[in-house]
Amino acid sequence: MKQSQILIPTQKEAPSDAEALSHKMMIRAGYLYQISAGVWSYLPLAYRVIRKVENIIRDEMDKAGAVEMMMPALVPADLWKKSGRYESYGDNLFKLTDRRDREFILGPTHEETFTEVIRDSIKSYKKLPLVVYQLQDKFRDEDRPRYGILRGKEFEMLDGYSFSADQRGLDEAYDLQAKAYRNIFDRVGLNYKVILADSGTIGGKNSQEFSAPAEVGEDIIAYTDGDYAANLEKAVSKFAGVQQTDEPAPLEKKATPGAHTVDEAAESLKMDPNQVIKSMFYIAKMGEDEYQPVLVLMRGNDEVNEAKVTNALDCEDLELASEEDAMKYLNAHPGSLGPVGVGEDVKILADNYVKVLVNMACGANEDGYHYINANIDRDFRVDSFGDFRNVKEGEIAPDGKPIKFTNGIEIGHIFKLGTLYSQKLGAQVLDQNGRLTDVIMGCYGIGVTRLLSAVAEQNADENGLVWPDSIAPFDIHVIPVNAKNKDQMEMAEEIDQKLTEAGYEVLVDDRKERAGVKFADSDLIGIPIRVTIGKKAQDGIVEIKIRKTGETVEVKQEELINTISILLKQLNEENK
C-alpha cells in the first residue's frame, strides 16, 4: 500500500493533556483522533492493529470451543433492573429513553442480555455446556476519561459467557478460557501477570485478572518472585501481629485540638501511631432501600480495603459516610470518630491487627478529643474481626516470599458467576432427573482496544511505537529516500510486489518528503522492519533496519526476502 493513499496524520508534538506514553505516541503517530473526552476515532493504522488483535482472539476462542455472535448495544433497562445492576452500576451507565419513554441503557457489559437469550432458547441440560462471545463496542460514562484509550467512554471489548448445567461444566469452560486468554496475550506480545482479583460490579466469588505491568496502570499488583500475584483489592499477607500483654489501664479522655489524622493524634498523645485506632465510617447498601452504617477499625496507618469490607458484609455497595451521617450516628465529624459508646444501630468491624492491641487510643466521638487506654469488650464492642486492610510491600505473602508492588493495566478478567444472574432472570434447564435447575454461568472479558495501549506502554520508546510483528499494522515499511529518483522508485515497486507475493503486508512511503521526515515518521509508526532504498540502489543494495533494536544490515536485493524471514523469526522468538 502506498503511504500517500492512507490517512496517517503524524505530529511533531503530543497534546498537552497527554500523560501516558501510549497516548502521546499513538496521537503523534497518527493512529488516533479524539472526537470528545473519552471518545476516539481509530484511524487506518490503529484499525489494522485492532483487526489483527480480533483475528487472534477469534482463532483462540474457536480453539477453546467458543462461538461468536452479536448482541445489541441498546439494552432495555428492565433487564438491568431485574438483576439489580441498574442502580448499583451507578453514574457509569448511559441511560436514555425512546420516543415512547421506554427506558434503555447503552451496554457496558452483557451478562443480562446473554442470560435472557439462553433462558428462552435452551430448556435441557443436553444442550449444555455452551460458550458464546462477541466483539462489540461498550459504553461507560467515565467521570475522568484519561490516558487516551486506556480509560474511555466507548471501547471495544470481547465479552464471553459460559452456560453449564453443573459445576463441572463451569470449571471446564473456565479453565479453557483461562488457557485461551494466555494464548491471546502471548500472541499479541504482552508481558502480563495472572492475578487473583475481586469481581466488583460483575459479581461472583471466583475470578482471575490478567494485568500488564505498566507505569500508568491504575491497578496495583501485589506479587512475589514466587507463585503469588493478586490485585491489591484481593491481596493477603501472613498475619504478623503479636498479642500485647499489658494490663488494661483506666479509660481517659484527652483533648487533642487540631488532631484529625492518626499521626496528628499520636503526636498529640505522645503515642506510637500503631496504638492509635483509625475509625472509618461507611454506609453499606444491603438491598433495595436497606442501608447499614458500618464503623471499620484499623491499626495506625493501615489502609482500609473496601473490597474486603464489601465482601465481608455481602453488600451491594459501600460508600464513605458523609459528615451529615457521621453527625447523625456518632455525633462527631470524621477525624474524631471512635467505637466507644457507639449504639447497636452501627455495625463495628475491626481488622485482625486491632484484636491483639491493649490500651489503644481512639476518637472520642467529640470534636477535638480522643480516648486513651481503650480496650475491646471493656470499653467498646466489635461485631466481627477479619482481614480488612491493604497489604504492604515487604510483608510475607502466602507463598512465603516478600510482597512487591507494581502498577498494572487490566487487560482481561474471567469470573465464575455461578447462578447469580440465572436465578434473578429465571434461566433454568431440566437436569438428568427431569428437575428444573439454575444454569451455572461464567463470564470472560478482554479490553480489545485497551490492548493497544498496553502493548504500546510496554514497547514504545522515545522515538515512537514499536509493534510486535503479530499485530503491527504492516510487516515492512519500504522507504525510497528520494521519490524523484526513478531507480529508487522502480526498485521500491519491485520490492513491494515481491514481498507482497511472499505474504507480507507492505507500506511504501512514496511521499515527496525529505529523508529525515520519512525516517522520523517510520520510527513513530513502529512497523517492525524498515527497508531503505538509497544511493546504493543502483548497485542493487538496500538497508534493513529492525525497529525494536535499531540494528541495521545491508543486503543484496535478491537476498532481501530470505533475510527478512530470518529477522522476523528472531523477533518472534525474542517476544515469546
Automatic annotation (TrEMBL):
EC number of this enzyme: 6.1.1.15
The entry's keywords: Aminoacyl-tRNA synthetase, ATP-binding, Cytoplasm, Ligase, Nucleotide-binding, Protein biosynthesis
Gene3D superfamilies per UniProt: Anticodon-binding domain, Bira Bifunctional Protein, Domain 2, YbaK/aminoacyl-tRNA synthetase-associated domain
Major subcellular site: cytoplasm
Compartment(s) where it occurs, according to its Swiss-Prot or TrEMBL record: Cytoplasm
Annotated GO CC locations: cytosol
InterPro entries, per the entry: aa-tRNA-synt_IIb (IPR002314), aa-tRNA-synth_II (IPR006195), aa-tRNA-synth_II/BPL/LPL (IPR045864), Anticodon-bd (IPR004154), Anticodon-bd_dom_sf (IPR036621), Pro-tRNA-ligase_IIa (IPR002316), Pro-tRNA-synth_IIa_bac-type (IPR004500), Pro-tRNA-Synthase_IIa_type1 (IPR023717)
Enzyme class: ligase
A Gene Ontology molecular function term of the record: proline-tRNA ligase activity
CDD domains in UniProt: ProRS-INS (cd04334), ProRS_anticodon_short (cd00861), ProRS_core_prok (cd00779)
Aminoacyl-transfer RNA synthetases class-II family profile domain: residues covered: 47-468
Family: Belongs to the class-II aminoacyl-tRNA synthetase family. ProS type 1 subfamily.
Function according to Swiss-Prot or TrEMBL: Catalyzes the attachment of proline to tRNA(Pro) in a two-step reaction: proline is first activated by ATP to form Pro-AMP and then transferred to the acceptor end of tRNA(Pro). As ProRS can inadvertently accommodate and process non-cognate amino acids such as alanine and cysteine, to avoid such errors it has two additional distinct editing activities against alanine. One activity is designated as 'pretransfer' editing and involves the tRNA(Pro)-independent hydrolysis of activated Ala-AMP.
Record remark on domains: Consists of three domains: the N-terminal catalytic domain, the editing domain and the C-terminal anticodon-binding domain.
Protein name: Proline--tRNA ligase
Lineage: Bacteria, Bacillati, Bacillota, Bacilli, Lactobacillales
